[in-house]
Amino acid sequence: xxxxxxxxxxxxxxxxxxxxxxxxxxxxxxxxxxxxxxxxxxxxxxxxxxxxxxxxxxxxxxxxxxxxxxxxxxxxxxxxxxxxxxxxxxxxxxxxxxxxxxxxxxxxxxxxxxxxxxxxxxxxxxxxxxxxxxxxxxxxxxxxxxxxxxxxxxxxxxxxxxxxxxxxxxxxxxxxxxxxxxxxxxxxxxxxxxxxxxxxxxxxxxxxxxxxxxxxxxxxxxxxxxxxxxxxxxxxxxxxxxxxxxxxxxxxxxxxxxxxxxxxxxxxxxxxxxxxxxxxxxxxxxxxxxxxxxxxxxxxxxxxxxxxxxxxxxxxxxxxxxxxxxxxxxxxxxxxxxxxxxxxxxxxxxxxxxxxxxxxxxxxxxxxxxxxxxxxxxxxxxxxxxxxxxxxxxxxxxxxxxxxxxxxxxxxxxxxxxxxxxxxxxxxxxxxxxxxxxxxxxxxxxxxxxxxxxxxxxxxxxxxxxxxxxxxxxxxxxxxxxxxxxxxxxxxxxxxxxxxxxxxxxxxxxxxxxxxxxxxxxxxxxxxxxxxxxxxxxxxxxxxxxxxxxxxxxxxxxxxxxxxxxxxxxxxxxxxxxxxxxxxxxxxxxxxxxxxxxxxxxxxxxxxxxxxxxxxxxxxxxxxxxxxxxxxxxxxxxxxxxxxxxx
Length: 647
Description:
The protein contains three helices and 41 strands.
């Protein structure tokens, strides 16, 4: 197969003139800027005073067209790396590309030909990892079940790694399963000479004996597996008793598909885990189900568990823990603490001493509703609630939350809401349908968190939306169907509410001409600033205009709406800069800039398509700062760079 070649469309290639003596290169060497995953950059050329002057600098298109086997490129969700004036990124077809950081000119491209392999799916791929070696630097790509080592200078496979440049990450695991059931979405992390990867077994694979999640480490030089941690413990391992009636043997998932972070000084890798199979019915996996929906602190050298925290016991809300744990040092009551902060879909930020695992502020086990009409379900009587900091999004739903943009919309929203079970956070799924908030998308999701290590501030890009969970018996009328679905689960969520597409809208989706008007009041997305020294929310700013279909609704004709209603969604993210600007993005076709201190939206700049990747920034060798973001998907996938006008 011929390699697909991206085309660099250079909008502005003018070079800067003489730079000031203080000019310096500021790299972005890891997905989250640093292994601590702060998404923080020391670049300070762009400030609140001049960010309004940002203009397009260059664009690069993937040009990935459908292949003869029917493979299509999906959403472009990458966040590139920048090392030594070169950008490194992965594409929706899992190619790896190197670009000149100043101009966007393509330097090389490597195609692992993943899209032509059996079992290909258009699952998002969000980046690569960079390893500095004595005999040459390498790019590591995790694609499907394979880990590839690529020469950073030439783009060629490093054939001495694994077998001709690839390692099969399913080989030798304790449970045998088809290799094409392993997927990868988040990039690896690097610790010394180890490449550490998670796993992403599809939620649609729900059958007895389906694969459990793993965290694995491989030698960066040879490809030899150094260690593996299984997220579903077997007999004799810590937590096995939380899988009652030997359910550990037949259940899978509990993935680490979100972002990991690394404490290099203490040799700890922090891994957030997802829900077991299936997401909304746990009748075949009674018990708390460690280590699902947990923060794992693993010894980066050996893979041994150092400590863990489970945020959801016996999860049936799809509250995956996916946002990267953020490492920073905070000062609490005069005491300096090397902390790890993990933010979840359910709307809480949990803060721990990163070495001991002791909560910085108490986390209480509180009673929650357990009355459920779903056959076979046995819920946990308590769930963890942090006493500090406060929840960063509203939790739970009542009729008081009904959308009130107009009296007519309010009446329609109340009528729709009365069909479902309502209640606080952790209200059980039901046969009738339970309206939950935050939704299964969060809250905080994979691109949510960033921090300022100089101030101890944590910043979150969050959604404030609802989701209906209706559980029903699987039968001929409502089978679990879809591309790539393999399921023998007796209860699922492919029920009348879900198949009719009604969901959390004041107007059922069947009447799309009326528009998608959310069932609850705006805003629907925000950027939130948390002071982790004081465990307080400092500011909250609405992010995005709101979905275009809402504004076009005939029910809102003549109604003056706020400029910002908030655009909910899982995509995008934010980046924090020393220059005082936070860049944030979601599915809107705009890159937004906020003042780091006040939260005021300063400006925004248009992108060719809706933004799907978390933004990043860097300063090149010439001294010019760029902000780069991935937008679009399929044939329209575009990497867009912005900068101040040349001096």
